[in-house]
Amino acid sequence: MMMAALEKVLLVVVIVFCAVLAVQSMGIRAPAQTFPLVVTGLTGAMAAYALARSAFQPITAPIFGQGRGHYLLAGVAGLVGYVLAMSVSYLAATLVFLFAGYLYLMPERSIRSVAVAACVALAATAFTWLCFSYWLGVNLP
Amino acid sequence: MPLLESIAAAMDPMVLLLIALATVFGAIIGALPGFSSVMAISLLLPVVYPMEPLMGLLVLGSIYMGAMYGDANAAILLNIPGTASSLPTTFDGFPMTLQGRAREALLAALAGSVFGGITGVLVLLLTFGALAEFSLRFGPQEYFWLTILGLTTIAALSEGNLIRGLVGGGLGIAISLIGLDPYWGTPRFTFGQSSLIAGVHLIPALLGLFCVAQVLSSLAAPDGDRRAPEIGRQKDALRAVLRTMVRRWDVMIRSSAIGVLIGMLPGAGGPIASTISYNETRRWDRDSASYGKGRVEGVFASEVANNAMVGGSLIPMMALGIPGNVNAAVILGALLSFGMQPGMNLISDGSGVAMSFMIGLLISSILLAPLGYFLIIRVSTLVLKIPRTYLAPTVLVFASVGAYSVTNSMYGVAIMAALGIGGYALRRIGIEAAPVGLGLILGPIAEREFTSSLLIAQAQGSYWSIAMRPISLVLIFLCLLSIATPMLLMLKKRKAAQRKDDDKTVETK
Fold first, then answer.
1. Are B58 and B360 a contacting pair, CB within 8 Å?
2. Chain B residue whose CA is closest to A6
3. Is A139's Cβ below 8 Å from some Cβ in B?
4. What is the pLDDT of residues B392-431, one digit of tens each?
5. What CA–CA distances, in Å, run from B485 to B260, B277, B316?
6. What is the pLDDT of residue B462?
7. pTM given for the model
């Protein structure tokens, strides 16, 4: 039920996005106007067709399969949080994100496995910093 | 650049080291179930971005080659194909593991991949020049239809959901249009955001679509914690494999030919190549009933075709600019990011990059033999013992820092996260990442050629000139064929399933 609703919401988002771009395309001077107009028009039309078909054949799969929904939601939330924190301090954000991620995904926690997770998080953070900041000269936040 | 200089460039010790590292990296990522070859290539895009074009392309090509081999390890040891291409490898590979012949199966996959890889690259070396020369006859109209032919790959990638595949492709093209319009140079679709004037950077977008969305899928998928079994000692496994290879030369040649030919077709790719090759090998064998019960020829058939497809898929990509599959499309994206154009330009620009790249790929497929024997089989077995869910945070960090590095701002990371989360949501409703990615890569080329064709047509006073040229007509026919073939195959499959159901109903009555 929720999946069928999500399907429709996403298709409507695609249609609205294409409609907005198509309307904006009309303001572009020819000949650069034609291609965006054709692409966005056709894509919107096909999304509308898919939406119409979904009314008769909705997706029946559950929105989160086999009790793993919390992993997915934590993954999305963790990524968004990491992206926000990364803009403040790359090293701290990465270390915390990796360590928290390993701990969360661990099936069984013990002192040894937590220590291993901390070491791996530290090593991975150091490696990415070394690779990108030191070797490739990227100015990480 | 003469041939000898191209060979010397590809044999540079630094280049050789990078080829070896990239091949191992590709093989290991390919071995992880759920982590595809295209993800391995995308993940290293930011690292190769600042490199010299030859080094960058060779790293990506070697990852591609390694990943197409590495996927066999999970198929043989866990009965889970590392990528869809190695599905037929599970049919005989896993039964061999159950029979205590895991080592023989792993070596057969390695030998088959090396043979297939070398054959594919040799065909690429022999045909690229001629095909690129032929492309000189193409004008903007032909290039436009050629790009459309590349986009018809979407039909094959959509797996029975053509409309949603086309929506995904269109969405990818629409996203690629954000930024300055190439004709007038005025901003379009930027919604007043100055950061969008430069457009949606291809590399963060691909990282989002192919890495982040894939990681989220793997988090949501069950079966993440299966571990690889121990590989027992098996005396004379290598000798047995090599003996079978020589004895069944027909399997090797046929599978290579299938791999190269299927690889050249837009959208057909590895899964189709390995499946057709496996089916043909079984069909031509006198003892076809023994397949699926541990026949080493079954592993050969799948893996030879799988790796021969690498060279095959790069032929149209390098010569004409139409990728044979998504991996080739991402490499095409990298080629364009380096400011290079496919086709005759690659030969005539004097840099010799094309020839060195092909020679480097040949080296990569040869190096696969010792690397696989001494290193990859052992490392893959170890990696397959790590629960793959642990890899998710690490891959997300690599993708994020990679996206940051190519734009030098959080803008790239935001693009990656948005397309990753959006791409995963779209995937759940049947719009896969591959058509969106293909649209993103081919969209700007299609627009450029379409606008040029339109201007020529206006100057000539007839819009028919866009289509009514001999090569254009052939390309339009191929486009229609490319869209119709998967549809016809799907109809045939449905009819066969219906017939089976009808037979069952009659039997129960």
1. yes
2. B429
3. yes
4. 898 899 889 888 988 888 999 999 999 999 999 998 888 8
5. 19, 19, 19
6. 83
7. 0.81
* Chain A hits for B420, Cβ within 8 Å: 79
Contact B19, B54 (CB under 8 A): no
A3 contacts in chain B (CB < 8 Å): 428
Average pLDDT, chain B: 84
CB proximity under 8 Å: A 57-116 to B: 59, 61, 63-66, 68-69, 71-72, 75-76, 78-80, 82-83, 86-87, 90, 94, 97-98, 101-102, 105-107
B31 near B218, Cβ under 8 Å?
A: no
Task: Give B427→chain A minimum CA distance, Å.
Answer: 10
Contact A18 B421 (CB under 8 A): no
Cα–Cα dist B382/B230, whole Å: 9
What are the φ/ψ torsions at residue B218 (nearest 5 degrees)? -70, -30
Question: Where residue B387 falls among pLDDT bands split at 50, 70, 90?
Answer: low
CA A125 to centroid of chain Cα atoms? 21
Minimum-distance CB partner of B219 among A32, A71, A140: A71
Which residues, in sequence order, are bridge partners of residue B187? B180
Give the C-alpha separation, A131 to B130, whole Å. Answer: 41
Which of B144, B148, B177 to substitute to test the interface with A, most A CBs within 10 Å? B177
CA-nearest residue to B423 within chain A is A10
What are the residues whose beta carbons fall under 8 Å from the beta carbon of B394, sequence distance 6 or more?
Answer: A98, A124
The pLDDT tens digits of the residues spanning B233-282 come to 666 888 888 998 899 899 999 999 999 988 887 666 667 788 888 888 88
